[in-house]
Amino acid sequence: MHVPVRWEGVYPALLTPFTADDQLDLPLFEANLRAQLDAGMHGFIIGGSLGEASTLEPDEKIALLKSALAVCDGKVPVLLNIAEQSTKQAIKRAQEAEANGADGLMVLPPMRYPADARETVAFFTAVAEATSLPIMIYNNPYDYKIMTTVAMFEELAKYDNIQAVKESTRDLTNITRMRNAFGDRFKLLGGVDTLALEAILLGCDGWVGGLVDAFPQETMAIYDLAKAGQVSEALDIYRWFMPLLELDIHPKLVQYIKLAATATGIGSEHVRAPRLPLIGTEREQVLNVINSALAKRPVLV
Questions:
Q1: Nearest-5° angle of CA 181, CA 144, CA 178?
Q2: Is the pLDDT of residue 218 over 90?
Q3: pLDDT tier at 51, thresholds 50, 70, 90
Q4: Which of these is catalytic: 11, 61, 144, 166?
Q5: How many domains are contained in the chain?
Q6: Non-local CB neighbours of 145 within 8 Å, separated by 6+ positions
Q7: Residues 213 and 17 sit within 8 Å (Cβ to Cβ)
Q8: Which of 38, 100, 168, 267 is the most exposed place for a label (fewest CB within 10 A)?
Q9: Does residue 166 carry a catalytic annotation?
Q10: Is 138 a catalytic residue?
Q11: Burial of 115 (0-12, 13-18, 19+ CB in 10 A)
Q12: pLDDT-derived band at 1, boundaries 50, 70, 90
C-alpha cells in the first residue's frame, strides 16, 4: 500500500553512506533516517545527486529503498530518484521502483545528452506513461543544462501523475512564473539550500534539502516558522545556517555535506570513487565552517 505524497514540507535528499570497503552502510543510513524522522520530516528522496546516484548500482538503489520503507513504516512517503542516460533505462528503473514499493519518483531529464525541448518532454512523458507513481520533475538547468520551461510544463500538465517540481533553476522569478501559469496544478519545492527561505516565502510548498542530512532540526525549524508567518524568527536561524547551506552549491557538495553529517554524529566521510574524501587545506576549511557553526548553534524552542 503506497503512502500518499502530499508534496509539502521538508524532503531530505538523503546521503548514501558507505563502509570503508565501499559497501552500502545500511545501519548508518537507517540511523540518519531515524534522526530525520524524529525531526518531523514529511518525506524522503533516495538516490539523488547528493545520494551519489551516478555511482550506485540498480540493486543498491532498491536496497536503500527497501531499508527506508522499513524504517518509515508507512509514516511518510519514500521517493526514488530516476537519473538515467536513456529513456529505456529510465522506464525500467521507474517500474522497478514501483514494483519494490516506492511511493513516488523524482525524475531528472536525460543524463549526459543535452536534449532539446521536444526530446525532454518526450522523455518525461514516456516515464509518466510507464508508471502510476506520482512524479516530481527536477528542474535544474544550472547543473544538468536542461531547462524545463513553462511551455514544456504546459505539455506535461495533461499527465495526472506529474504532480510536482523541484525548483532548482536558481531564478526565484520562476516560482512566480509557474504560479501565474498553473496556479496550484503543480506543487513546487525549493531545491537550492541557499535560496530555501526565499522560495518558501514566494510560495513554494516544500523544501528538498541537502544540509538537512546533518542538521534536520534547524531545517525543520526554518520551514515551520516561515509557514507560520514567523519570518523574523526563521531569518535568525537562516542567517546562522547560511555558511553551512553554501556547502550545498559546490561541486563537492557530497563530500562537504558528508563531513557535516559526520560532525553531527549521523554520517561518515566515506564516498564512492571517483569521489575521494577531503584532505589537507580543503578539509580544514570546510571543517572550520562546520565547527564555527556548531559553536554558535541556535537553541531551538
A1: 10
A2: yes
A3: very high
A4: 166
A5: 1
A6: 114
A7: no
A8: 38
A9: yes
A10: yes
A11: middle
A12: confident
Question: Residue 278 sits in a domain of what CATH number?
Answer: 3.20.20.70
- 69 lies in some domain: yes
Angle 283-286-289 (CA atoms, 0-180°, nearest 5)?
150
pLDDT at 301: 79
Q: Is residue 218 part of a domain?
A: yes
Tell me whether residue 5 is annotated as binding: no
Catalytic annotation, pick one of 11, 138, 223, 238: 138
Determine the average pLDDT of the residues in 49-61: 97
Percent of the chain with pLDDT over 70: 100
Asked if residue 300 belongs to a domain, the reply is no
Range of the domain at 165: 9-295
Please report whether residue 99 resides in a domain: yes
